[in-house]
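Inverse folding, one chain.
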C-alpha cells in the first residue's frame, strides 16, 4: 500500500516538474521572439561621425588567422570617414605570428605592431594585452584629431565585412550607447560545434530582455562578446578600462559591467551581416574553449548548478516526458525547438535539423560546465599555454 502511494506521489511530482519545465520553455520562447524583434543590428545607412578610431587586435599564437584578420580590418578601416589606426599586439607568441606581423607591417606602414610586455601578477593574459593596446590609443595624440573617439577590440578569429566598423559605430552613436557588441556569425561545421556553439546566442536571446538590459545598471542584465566590441574611448577610460577586469576570465562581460558601474550603458547586438568567427574546430577545441571559462559564467558553482538545473528542467525534462507520450512535455519540447529556430533565423545559424537536438545541446552544456568547475577547483585549466588564473 505504501509502495503504491509512493509511486503515485512520484508520478505527481514528475508531472508537476514537467509542467514547470514547459512553462519555462514557453517563457523562453516568448522572450526569444521579443528579442528577435527588438535586437539592435549594425546599420551602414546611418551617418557615421568622422571621429578618431582605433581598431585593437591582441594576438597570441594566431599564425593560422592573423593575416586574414588584419586584411579584413584594413578593408573595414578604409571606409572610416575620420582618422583611424589599426594596432596589433603580439602577446608573447611562440609560433610564426611575429614573422607574419612583420610582413604585414612591411606591406602597410600604417599598421602598428606592438610587442607585448610580460604579464604582471594579478592579470589574465587577454585583459593585459587589451590594456596595453588601449594604453597606446590613450597616448596616440594628434593635434588634428578631435578628443575622444571609438575603441574597437577584435579577436584574431574574426573577419569583418567592409562596412562593419562604420555600421557598428554609427549604430552605437545613434542609439546613445557607450558600448556595443555586434555578435558575429558563429561558423560551425562538425557535429560538436553545431551541437554547442548555437547556445552562445540562444542563451542570451532566451533569457535576457535586451530592451531592459541596454539601459539597466544591474550587473545581472549584461551580455557582451569580446570577439567584436566597440566602446566609447572616454567612457572606457572612465570605467577603468581593462584594469577594472584584469582578473576576469570573461573580461567582455566584466567590461560592460564596469561601464554600467561608471554610469554608462551598452548591449549585445546581432552582427552576423558584418562579422563572422570560427571559434573552434572539433570537439577537443570546443571542450578546451568552454572549459577555461564556463566556471565563471554563472558567478559561482551554486549559480552554475541553479542555472543548469533550470535548463534541464525546462528543456530536457519535457523532451523526455514527450517520449513517454506526455502532451505537456511535447509542448515544452516544441517550445525549446522553436526558440532555437527563431534564434538561428535571426543570427544566421543552422536551424534544421540542429534545433531538434536542443535537449542534447543543453545536456552537453551542463557536462561542459561541470567539467569546467572541476578543472578550476583542481587548478588544471590552461589556455594557449598559460594557466587560467591571475
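Residues assigned per position:
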Amino acid at each position: 500500500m505504501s509502495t503504491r502511494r509512493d509511486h503515485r506521489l512520484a508520478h505527481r511530482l514528475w508531472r508537476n516538474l514537467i509542467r514547470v519545465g514547459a512553462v519555462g520553455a514557453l517563457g523562453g520562447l516568448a522572450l526569444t521572439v521579443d528579442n528577435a524583434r527588438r535586437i539592435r543590428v549594425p546599420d551602414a545607412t546611418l551617418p557615421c561621425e568622422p571621429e578618431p578610431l582605433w581598431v585593437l587586435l591582441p594576438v597570441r599564437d594566431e599564425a593560422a588567422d592573423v593575416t586574414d584578420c588584419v586584411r579584413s580590418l584594413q578593408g573595414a578601416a578604409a571606409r572610416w570617414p575620420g582618422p583611424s589606426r589599426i594596432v596589433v599586439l603580439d602577446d608573447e607568441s611562440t609560433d610564426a605570428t611575429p614573422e607574419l606581423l612583420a610582413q604585414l607591417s612591411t606591406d602597410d606602414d600604417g599598421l602598428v605592431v606592438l610587442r607585448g610586455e610580460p604579464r604582471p601578477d594579478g592579470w589574465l593574459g587577454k585583459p593585459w594585452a587589451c590594456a596595453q593596446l588601449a594604453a597606446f590609443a590613450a597616448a596616440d595624440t594628434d593635434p588634428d584629431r578631435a578628443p575622444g573617439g571609438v575603441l574597437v577590440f577584435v579577436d584574431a578569429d574574426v573577419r569583418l565585412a567592409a562596412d562593419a566598423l562604420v555600421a557598428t559605430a554609427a549604430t552605437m552613436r545613434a542609439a546613445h550607447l557607450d558600448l556595443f557588441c555586434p555578435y558575429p556569425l558563429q561558423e560551425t561545421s562538425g557535429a560538436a560545434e553545431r551541437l554547442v556553439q548555437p547556445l552562445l546566442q540562444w542563451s542570451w536571446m532566451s533569457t535576457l530582455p535586451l530592451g531592459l538590459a541596454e539601459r539597466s545598471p544591474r550587473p545581472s542584465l549584461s551580455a557582451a562578446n569580446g570577439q567584436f566590441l566597440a566602446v566609447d574611448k572616454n567612457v572606457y577610460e572612465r570605467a577603468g578600462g581593462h584594469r577594472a577586469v584584469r582578473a576576469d576570465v570573461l573580461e567582455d562581460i566584466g567590461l560592460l559591467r564596469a561601464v554600467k558601474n561608471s554610469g554608462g550603458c551598452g548591449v549585445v547586438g546581432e552582427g552576423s551581416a558584418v562579422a563572422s568567427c570560427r571559434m573552434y574546430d572539433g570537439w577537443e577545441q570546443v571542450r578546451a574553449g568552454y572549459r577555461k571559462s564556463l566556471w565563471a559564467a554563472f558567478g559561482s558553482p551554486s549559480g552554475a548548478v541553479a542555472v543548469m538545473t533550470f535548463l534541464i528542467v525546462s528543456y530536457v525534462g519535457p523532451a523526455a516526458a514527450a517520449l513517454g507520450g506526455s502532451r505537456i512535455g511535447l509542448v515544452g519540447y516544441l517550445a525549446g525547438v522553436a526558440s532555437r529556430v527563431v534564434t538561428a533565423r535571426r543570427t544566421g545559424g543552422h536551424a534544421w535539423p540542429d534545433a531538434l537536438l536542443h535537449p542534447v545541446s543543453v545536456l552537453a552544456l551542463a557536462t561542459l560546465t561541470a567539467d569546467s568547475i572541476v578543472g578550476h577547483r583542481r587548478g588544471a585549466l590552461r589556455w594557449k599555454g598559460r594557466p587560467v588564473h591571475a
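The CA atoms of residues 91 and 117 lie 7 Å apart. The radius of gyration is 22 Å.
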